[in-house]
Amino acid sequence: MEIPLAEITLRKYEKPYQLEKRELVKKICLSLGLLQAGDSRDVIVDVLLVLLNSSKERKSLTSDEVKAQVEKIREENSLEAKGIAESNIRRQLKRLRDLMIVDKKENLYNISEFATLSEIFDVKIEKFLLPQILERVKEYIKELDK
Hints:
Helix 1 packs across helix 2. Helix content is 55%, strand content 5%. The radius of gyration is 17 Å and the shape is globular. It has 146 residues and is mainly α.
């Protein structure tokens, strides 16, 4: 099986006019390929929202704490309890770690370096991950062009 060294999906949506915070986070997840359009299992949105909220207080959370807060958010928003099993919460945390948005240290999770999402996207995705991916794609294209 071919396993990529790195991958990212980027999508463009309409401008963010008058969206609630959860809807903004959902659009970010859709834009970064963390969520598929029309996907009813959108627990990644709530996982990211919980971590963004805790980041303002520079607080790290265990996966159990993330799960408890996700359950609360989903209940407050009258959303189904799909995807809130502990194993799935950990899987979503890993996906956020793989995209360098979340750090894990001693089983505690937080937004990377408690930075803003803007800073993380700029430094880790736009300036670090994307150039590496683009360069490798160009290498394959040049090799094919020979």
